[in-house]
Amino acid sequence: MTLFAAALAAAVGRSLPGAVLTVGAVAAGQLSVGWCNDRRDLGRDLATGRRDKPLVRGAVRPAVVTAAALTALLLCVPLSLATGPLAGCAHLGAVAAAWAYNLRLKGTAFSWLPYALAFGLLPAFVTLGLPGAPWPPWWLTAAAALLGAGAHFANVLPDIDDDLATGVVGLPHRLGARRSAVFGGLLVLGAAVALVAGPPGEVPPYGWGLLAVTAAVPVLAGSRLTGRSRVPFLATMALAGADVVLLLVRGAALAAPR
Question: Is the pLDDT score of 26 beyond 90?
Answer without folding.
Answer: yes
